Amino acid sequence: MTLPELSPLLAELTQLRHELHRLAELSGQETDTAQHLQHYLQRYSPGQLLSGLGSGTGLVAIFEGKKLGPTLMLRADMDALPIADANQLPYSSRKQGVSHKCGHDGHMSMLAGLAPLLARHPLKRGRLLLLMQPAEETGQGARALLKDERFTSLAPDYIFGLHNLPGYPLGQVVLREGTFCPASKGLHVTLRGRTAHAAEPELGHSPANALAELLQQLPKLPPTTQPAELSLLTLTHARLGDSSFGISPGEAELLATLRANLQPDMDRLSEAVEHLLHQTASAQGLGLSLEYREVFPATTNGAEAFACMQRAATAAGLDVHLKQDPFRWSEDFGCYNQLAPSGFFGLGAGLEQPNLHNAAYDFPDALLPYGLRMYWALIGQLLGH
Ligand SMILES: [Zn+2]
Ligand SMILES: [Zn+2]
Which residues bind Mn(2+) (predicted)? Predict the structure, then answer.
């Protein structure tokens, strides 16, 4: 797919990206976004268009090849973030405090842009599934799809996805074999003692000392290792009692995020964390509850998927960067590994772009053709067009 061949389509996809940007919806609430995409995709007559998947707003457009062959699934994420749009744009988010600050509007547009290409160049063999996935940011979207039989029965043979990457040259394909992004999970801890009048703290049972000890000790638990074997605990929030001068606190709350590149390291870290929590709470006679939220598995590229992505980038004539160490952020794309061999790659969004989740970030429209070219090369390689 050459750039001149793509250029008439790019104006249409830029407009689609702006419309999706304006519709920005939070994780799990992507109803207008789903409807808009559905209208767009229907114009190019997919064989089938499944809606209401997973957490309720997932979509899959199915394109059939002329003869039998493998099933390839390509995935884009749909959700925006609870961040106010700091940019004054003609297509600024219509919702106060919600905007596309991770570029999922661009991811959806690149994926949807394959539909008009397929209308012109039908697949030679197999089936292509274009998946629009809700709720990536909360780690719930892929999980919900994997519990939906209408989705799992599509039984793809390969799944690929991408994320745009500010700080990398525009259109550069960033690849890594093995772990691409770490497993991560949120830890929510509550310590329970007993409140008392602040004048008589000895009559209550404050969790202050236990909280102080945990704040000191928890970040020391992960072993310090090479970045390729990252294992990390970050304290993200702590609360002792309520904001008051009259009450000696009876409850404390602590939030932390655990990350590890390898699942066995994540399991070891979780075990060490739980051991310390139980030990501290019981030594101080406090009640303890702990819960994990926003659990992301590691996103890992197996040898086969990695080789497919390398070949596709070469075929598309795109610049490739082989990344030494995995990224630090997490992606729920890793969940799809249980369904089929899956590959995830980064796409440079430009060196001067603000970072993801920064209020000034906006997906660069100049990136649209690069994602299309990479996807088109993957389709060509596995299904032919
Ligand atoms: Zn994000
Ligand atoms: Zn994202």
Answer: 102, 104, 137, 163, 357
Domain count, the chain: 2
* Mean pLDDT across the chain: 96
Longest dimension (CA), the chain: 81
User: pLDDT at position 229, please?
Assistant: 83
Give yes or no: residues 275 and 224 share one domain: yes
- Predicted local confidence at residue 64, as pLDDT: 96
Give residue 263 CA to ligand 1 midpoint distance, Å. Answer: 22
Give phi and psi for 230, each to the nearest 5: -50, 135
Q: Choose one of 279, 296, 313: the last residue of a domain.
A: 296
Measure Cα distances from 232 to 136, 184, 195 in Å: 22, 9, 33
Residue 232 belongs to domain spanning: 183-296
Binding-site residues sit at: 102, 104, 137, 163, 357
Q: Do 45 and 14 have their domain in common?
A: yes
Ligand 2 geometric centre to CA of 243 (Å):
35
User: Are 33 and 119 in the same domain?
Assistant: yes
Cβ(23)–Cβ(36) below 8 Å? yes
Reading the block at residue 259, the tokens are 């990350």
Annotated binding site for Mn(2+): which residue ranges? 102, 104, 137, 163, 357
pLDDT band at 223 (very low <50, low <70, confident <90, very high): confident
Residue ending a domain, among 238, 271, 296, is 296
Chain segment 110-121, per-residue pLDDT in tens: 999 999 999 999
The rounded Å distance from CA 102 to ligand 1 centre is 5
| Nearest listed ligand to the Cα of residue 333 | 2
Q: How far is the CA of 219 from the centre of ligand 2 (A)?
A: 26
Instruction: Using alpha carbons, select from 105, 111, 136, 107 the residue that is nearest to residue 19.
Output: 105
CA of 325 to the centre of ligand 1 (A): 20
